[in-house]
Write a structure and sequence with these properties.
31% of the residues lie in helices and 23% in strands. With 132 residues, it is an alpha+beta fold. It has one domain: 2-Layer Sandwich (Beta-lactamase Inhibitory Protein, Chain:B, domain 1). It has a four-stranded antiparallel beta sheet, covered by helices on one side. This is Lipoprotein. Keywords: Signal. Residues 1-21 form the signal peptide.
C-alpha cells in the first residue's frame, strides 16, 4: 500500500487541476491588461468570445476569472445568482476613481447559484453614486 501512495497522490493532484478554456483567436493577456475597457482591446476581442460563448458556458466562476481576470463590476441577483461584468469601451472610470458613475457597453456573464455560467450577453451597464 505504501508504494502506491505517491502514485495515488500524483493522480489526485493531476485530476484536480483545471485547464483554461481554449478560445481560438482570444488573447487573455491583452483582455486582462485592458482594465475597464479603456484601451479598446476588449471591444476588438468580444466578438471572438461571443462566437465561442458555448465554451464560456462550460466554466465556473473561478475558471472564468482565471481566463478573463477580475471583473470590473459584480452584481448580485435574486436566488444567489450573480453577474460578472467586463466593460468593453472607454468610460468615465478611465480617468476617475473606480466608484465614478459609468454608462458603457459591457460583457455580462450570469452565474447560477452554484457558480456555473448560464448566460453570456453584451448589454449596457450603468452604475454610480445615483444607482440603487
Amino acid at each position: 500500500m505504501k508504494r502506491y501512495t505517491p502514485l495515488l497522490l500524483l493522480m489526485l493532484a493531476a485530476a484536480c487541476q483545471t485547464t483554461p478554456a481554449d478560445i481560438a483567436g482570444f488573447n487573455a493577456y491583452l483582455w486582462k491588461q485592458d482594465k475597464a475597457g479603456c484601451g479598446r482591446e476588449r471591444s476588438q476581442m468580444v466578438d471572438t468570445l461571443m462566437v465561442q460563448r458555448d465554451k464560456l458556458l462550460q466554466l465556473n466562476e473561478n475558471e472564468l476569472i482565471s481566463l478573463l481576470g477580475n471583473p470590473d463590476a459584480r452584481e448580485l441577483w435574486e436566488r444567489n445568482q450573480k453577474f460578472l461584468i467586463y466593460l468593453l469601451e472607454p468610460n468615465a472610470r478611465c480617468q476617475a476613481p473606480e466608484d465614478a458613475p459609468v454608462t458603457a457597453k459591457a460583457l455580462h456573464i450570469r452565474l447560477s447559484a452554484i457558480g456555473r455560467a448560464n448566460e453570456v450577453f453584451i448589454g449596457s451597464f450603468k452604475a454610480g453614486r445615483d444607482q440603487p
